[in-house]
Amino acid sequence: MFTRMKPSRARHRAAPPQRHPARKRVLVSAAAVLFAVGTASSASAAIINTDDATPEEQIAAEIVADAGDADYRWDQVAPMDSILPATEEGAPAEAAKAEPAEVPAEEEPAAEEESTESSGPSVDIAADCGEYSGNKAIGCTMTLEAGWDMDEVGCLVSLWDRESGWDESAYNEGSGAYGIPQSLPGDKMAANGDDWETNPATQIAWGLDYIEGRYDSPCGAWSHSESNGWY
What we know:
Blueprint: H1 21-35, H2 40-48, H3 55-75, H4 134-145, H5 150-163, H6 200-215, H7 218-228
Helix pairs in contact: 1-2, 2-3, 4-5, 4-6, 5-7, 6-7
């Protein structure tokens, strides 16, 4: 007969896991690199002295050793001179300051040439002509200076009111007559001054000469104008 054995209820405690030796070496190697970063040779030695160094540890040791050697060679490079030009004292020269652009001097305006044109008569308005103003006051004064009286002045004022309104720039497009006395053509008045186009005194002087030579007086010219519509 066989005796049936009862299963044992005893529990066996599992053995703690064993850390892989290679993993332990990697951690040790990494710690050695961090603490020995001051000099490459120390870091390399710390890795190599690890028991049974793996190929990865050997590569890490070579990388650290190469880096340390590179640092050493870099220390042997002579410092580079400054690329800036040196002054007499050896300091870099300051950048040349740009000279301000030369501003051309302004040309003085050319002196106005003196007019060679003759001017018409200057007129001081007579006291008897106070009732008139502007060109009519000039015409009144010049009529009195020519030897006529105030009645003649009245005829002259009426005559040239009709002809031009006493406007020195009046122009008749139909006939071409110009100025206060409506000279035809206008340049006839140049006999009394080169400024005949703009100077009322020059125009009045010519008109009075014309009236005296053709009608004897302003009232004679006015009478003819009343009868014929022109003088």
